[in-house]
Write a structure and sequence with these properties.
single chain, Rossmann fold, Helix Hairpins, Heat Shock Protein 90, 5-stranded parallel sheet, 17 strands, 46% helix, elongated
Amino acid sequence: MLMDPVSFLLVDDLEENLISLEALLRREGLKLLKARSGDEALELLLKHDVALALIDVQMPGMNGFELAELMRGNERSRRVPIMFVTAGSPDGTWRFQGYEAGAVDFIQKPIETDILRSKADVFFELYRQRQQLAMQRDELEARAKALKEADQRKDIFLATLAHELRNPLTPLRHGLDVLKRNPASTEADRIRATMDRQLSHLVRLIDDLLDVSRVSQGKIELRKEPVKVQDVLNAAVEASRPAIDAAKHALSTDLPSEPIWVEGDPARLSQVVANLLNNATKYTPDNGQIAISAHADGTDAVITVSDTGIGIPDDMRSKVFQLFTQVDDHLNRSQGGLGIGLSLVQQLVTLHGGHIVATAAPVGNGTSFIVRLPLVAAPFETSATLCGPSSGTVLESALKVLVVDDNVDVARVVGWMLEEVGHEYHLVHDGREALQEARRFHPDVVLLDIGLPHMDGYEVCRAFRADHEFKDIPIVAQTGWGQSKDKALAAAAGFNHHLTKPVNLEELSGVLASIT
């Protein structure tokens, strides 16, 4: 970091003496302040921090000793080191008077150049060290403040996380209790729909947490390709539409007729815009207005999401992108989030070479989020990239599925799902028994958990591949480990497919259908 120049104060009533001192002391990083009288010197001391004052003793009006005494009486200048410059040979009384006034040394005229420079260099370096210590102190204070703020945000995050997790868990618990007491309840369909919706919300919370962690550690992989901004926005609107409609918001879109192309991961870009739309939905009172638009501006594609919600204070607009940051007014809203969504959005936008800012909305008290991404030329051939997997899987034939999972409840529910779509299943809860049970059951496919005790899923998979009877059997990893490196490890161990828990029925059916 660049430090301010060090200042010396030169005080002498003769201009030629000041010029001589200036020539002797001049060096890089040193600023020389010159005064022809004690009064001028005091004015300069009020404006500047001085590392050393070289003061002529015999000056008309206020002499050097009187100036030194006045300096000692002022809090700003009382600690400035003083070197007296005198033409005579000071006796003991004079020296005592000078030291009593605050002198650290006397320099006699004619001045010996090397001695003056050597002594001046000491005070220059001492002041530089004080500057460095002050900068280090300020840096430590800033870090301490940042750590304190981060700790406060963490505490708020943990409290909010507990609240946000309890929200979807409550209807799940209550719904199970009602169905357990009365399985044939007239409200059974509505209860199941509510439970399904809340479970999806819970999965999204966990996915967001994992995404933030992966992005922060640089472990996220973007599958970049040319993509139309219009497709990104349409996919995001489709994903956010249920929440927008539930809050009775009016959504307006303004998309250009000509395609706008950027290079990016279609799913991640859609996630960015969907997060902004969901944010607008949460913090806009019912029957509000949300607008989404896109246009080309120079070399950038500009995406804007605006709302008529409760807004963000001016001093918080740059801070809302920090992890775990919550706006105080937003904490009081029942739908307040974890403080990770906007941080994730900013990091994903940055990974795409863009940037995002929050501004006041053009109408009302709401907020506008503006995303800018670099434009690219349109590709010669394009294909749809935002289509999800088909949910209309047709079961061609029943399979015998060996389910290996140490969690009895998880294994049992997976079995029920398989049975629901017409497959036969057999459960194993210990990886060491999987191969032996397979010889009895003769499965067509193995659903295998990776995080097994005693013998993990990788070892079990390798054991199947080493067995002549099962070396070609399809093996599907069904696990809570879902990062790219986990999928690579699974493939290396011999898995054919990798499913991340919780696995929904459509996803599982799609994989099994590809096997049949």
